[in-house]
UniProtKB/TrEMBL annotation:
The lineage of its organism: Bacteria, Pseudomonadati, Bacteroidota, Cytophagia, Cytophagales. Residues 522-561 form the GH29D-like beta-sandwich domain. This is beta-N-acetylhexosaminidase. The active site is at 311 (proton donor). It is an enzyme of class 3 (hydrolase). It catalyses: Hydrolysis of terminal non-reducing N-acetyl-D-hexosamine residues in N-acetyl-beta-D-hexosaminides. GO terms for molecular function: beta-N-acetylhexosaminidase activity.
């Protein structure tokens, strides 16, 4: 009988605690019988030693916004919320929240703890307007397992407005994240106003996209201060990242004298690692960077400045007389030591201003000062090096939220233990915590929240409460937070599915094209147009399969209600005489880029701006060699075919292309032969058309396309020594 009652007590305790869905889970939560009723008559009182005016103001304002209930600060009425200091708490962020039927008692050592207690209290309240709210009686004793619980937002690849940043700060704070790492500069854009160098934003903040549109934007210093202060009031420290000495092409476009060469540059509209870096052998580079830091540091009261330091190709330094002279003068044996010299020099400057340097784990190359904080993204091995060197570390690699939800699932994020590596556990005082970066090469305001939530909730819990984990129990609490996220207008995503996967299929027999869409959430819908205009929430809704039978430009995007969830995509279908004709492949494309199938060269589909769109076909180190059989002698005046180059992805234009024609498929006459002056180190996306035009009609049955690949990638390329890829899409005959 005793065992029965003990088991019943456990079941009842689990059921009661299940009704309390606080995320992150408190370290200790004891549920008691009874309820506290919160109304507009509820007072807020403080012990004499408590100086928490900002926290009280946030409590009043947030509960009024959330529930409509107006609390009474400094009133003496009952019931009441009472704030009291407890110096015995070991952690500055710790708090104790005790709720009885008569009062809510909040105890903390600092205002940080008081604030987190308020956020837990908010999660016990409804996120809807009400005259009164019942709060269960309980006691929470809580403190974070890790001091550094951060989110990194890349605003350089795609710009995000201040309103979006503030919304994320609100959500981070609700879930007790305390670091916002603001990635403000990169190759594709400079996003922070520097008054001494105005071209950083007038030139470096803008780029021309492959479709001809202009993308860009930047934050004024006034806006930066506004965001920093907004975060501070929510217990969040905002830390800037100014990338150096690599990932800086936008700055070099604005001020070419900071590069090792004077070649003409544009702000890139493609992704990857670029060879253009700050020429660290030039003294003017240090003057420039110190000037920039002198304007950045006063905007960010934090003790920390992130300087990037990752993915720095050394080719430009190897060819630079200034860099080689500096290496000789400083006795540096190689360019890795030159990078270390640069990092240490910048670190010394930051230290002279009372700041601590943070950098990605490449700052260890050539030796790093142990006072630097290392953000580890390339695996635990790099973290172990940093720990052995005496550095404090922040873990980022397991939490790249730009990874598809289907790959980095909610469960994986939740279950990852930041102290699972023995070296990490042995040196746990050096493991400060972690960040979840959102790199935005393929992320915009449309799909950012799909990538962030609910995974951010799992991340916050894994950092706040590193104790025993139960995914199903956590997931049950997450279900209670979906209505909250909906109320807060958060476009959250799926727990284990990507937003959308699409493919377009060609039916040669029917001469029709079918767009198949696989959506990550049941309440998402595809809206589309057939004339190339961007779809809206009022555009027609596609079924799982959308079939078209005539030339058109299918443009589509996923929507949830009236909210668009990703940038629109397009497939261009063109009519021409080669569509659905038989192709004889003497050299087939590689399997991973042969999605269009046997009719890939004659399926009427034109490739877009991305080589991975499922329309382009690719060959690695092999030629294109294909013959199209028109079925009978066919009259035409023009033949053309496109090729694409994206050097960072190892894709180069062909050395040469030949288009020839035949009556019998054996003896061919050359129509056009073209050679290319391929530039294997050229940044960005390049498209070239090889075409033949005849004033007089031509009659032939067979058309042959031959393209010779570039060959081995040259020195200075990120894939030097590897085979270049060759990509083409469609043979167009008219």
């Amino acid at each position: 009988m005793k065992q029965f009652f003990a088991g019943l007590l456990i079941v009842l305790t689990v059921q009661l605690n299940a009704q309390v869905s606080i995320i992150p889970k408190p370290q200790s939560l004891q549920r008691h019988t009874g309820e506290f009723t919160l109304t507009s008559s509820t007072a807020i009182q403080t012990a004499p030693e408590v100086k928490a005016e900002e926290v009280i103001r946030f409590l009043v304002e947030s509960i009024k916004t959330q529930t409509g209930i107006q609390l009474l600060p400094n009133a003496k009425s009952l019931p009441f919320i009472y704030l009291k200091s407890d110096a015995s708490l070991q952690n500055d962020e710790a708090y104790r929240l005790t709720i009885t039927a008569e009062r809510i008692l909040i105890e903390a050592k600092t205002n940080q703890g008081f604030f987190w207690a308020v956020q837990s209290l908010r999660q016990l309240l409804p996120f809807q307007k009400t005259a009164s709210a019942k709060i269960p009686c309980l006691m929470i004793e809580d403190a974070p397992s890790f001091q550094w619980r951060g989110h990194m937002m890349d605003v350089a690849r795609h710009f995000f407005p201040v309103s979006f940043i503030k919304k994320q700060l609100d959500l981070m704070s609700l879930y007790k994240l305390n670091i916002f790492h603001w990635h403000l500069t990169d190759d594709q854009g400079w996003r922070i106003e520097i008054k001494k160098y105005p071209k950083l934003t007038s030139v470096g903040a803008w780029r021309k996209e492959p479709d001809g549109s202009i993308h860009g934007g930047f934050y004024t210093q006034a806006e930066i201060k506004e965001v920093v202060e907004y975060g501070r009031r929510r217990n969040i420290t905002v830390i800037p990242e100014i990338e150096m000495p690599g990932h800086c092409v936008a700055a070099l476009v604005a001020y070419p004298e900071l590069a090792c060469t004077n070649e003409k540059r544009v702000v890139p509209n493609s992704w990857g690692v670029f060879g253009d870096v700050f020429c660290v052998g030039k003294e003017n580079v240090y003057v420039f960077l110190q000037d920039v830091l002198d304007e950045v540091m006063p905007l960010f009261p934090s003790r920390y400045v992130h300087i990037g330091g990752d993915e720095v190709p050394k080719t430009a330094w190897q060819a630079s007389p200034e860099c080689q002279a500096l290496m000789k003068a400083q006795g540096l044996k190689d360019e890795h030591e030159l990078q270390s010299y640069f990092i240490k020099r910048i670190q010394k400057y930051l230290q002279s201003k009372g700041k601590t340097l943070i950098g990605w784990d490449e700052i260890l190359e050539g030796g790093a000062d142990k006072d630097a904080i290392v953000e580890v993204w390339r695996g635990e091995a790099e973290g172990r090096k940093a720990l052995a060197n005496g550095n404090r570390i922040i873990h980022a690699g397991p939490y790249y939220f730009d990874s598809p939800n289907a790959n980095l699932t909610l469960k994986k994020v939740y279950e990852y233990d930041n102290l699972s590596d023995p070296a990490y556990r042995q040196n746990s005082t050096q493991v400060w915590g972690a960040e979840c970066p959102l790199w935005t090469e393929r992320v915009t305001t449309y799909n950012a929240e799909y990538m962030l939530y609910p995974r951010m909730l799992a991340f916050s819990e894994s950092l706040w409460n590193n104790g025993t984990r139960n995914f199903e129990e956590f997931r049950a609490r997450v279900q209670q937070h979906y209505p909250i996220l909906t109320t807060l207008k958060v476009a959250y995503g799926a727990e284990d599915k990507s937003l959308i996967d699409t493919k377009i299929e060609f039916d040669a027999a029917q001469k029709s094209w079918s767009l198949r869409s696989y959506l990550g959430m049941k309440d998402l819908a595809i809206r589309y147009t057939l004339n190339g205009t961007k779809p809206t929430a009022q555009s027609p809704k596609a079924q799982e399969v959308l079939t078209v039978t005539k030339p058109s430009k299918i443009t589509f995007a996923p929507f949830r209600g009236d909210k668009q969830y990703r940038d629109a995509q397009s497939y261009q279908i063109i009519e021409n005489k080669a569509v659905a004709k038989k192709t004889i492949w003497n050299s087939k494309p590689d399997a991973q880029y042969a999605k269009p199938g046997e009719y890939g060269l004659v399926d009427g589909l034109k490739g877009g701006e991305s080589f991975g769109d499922g329309v382009w076909m690719g060959w690695s180190g092999r030629p294109v060699d294909a013959v199209v059989d028109m079925g009978e002698k066919t009259t035409f005046r023009s033949v053309k075919i496109d090729f694409i180059q994206e050097a960072k992805s190892w894709i180069l234009l062909p050395k040469s292309v030949k288009i020839s024609a035949s009556d019998d498929g054996i003896s061919f006459t050359t129509l056009i032969e073209k050679t290319f002056d391929v530039k294997p180190l050229l940044d960005g996306i390049v498209k070239e058309t090889v075409g033949y035009e005849s004033k007089q009609p031509i009659q032939k049955r067979y058309l042959k396309v031959e393209a010779i690949p570039y060959g081995k990638l040259p020195a200075g390329h990120n894939g030097a020594g590897g085979e270049a890829w060759l990509f083409t899409d469609e043979l167009v005959v008219n």
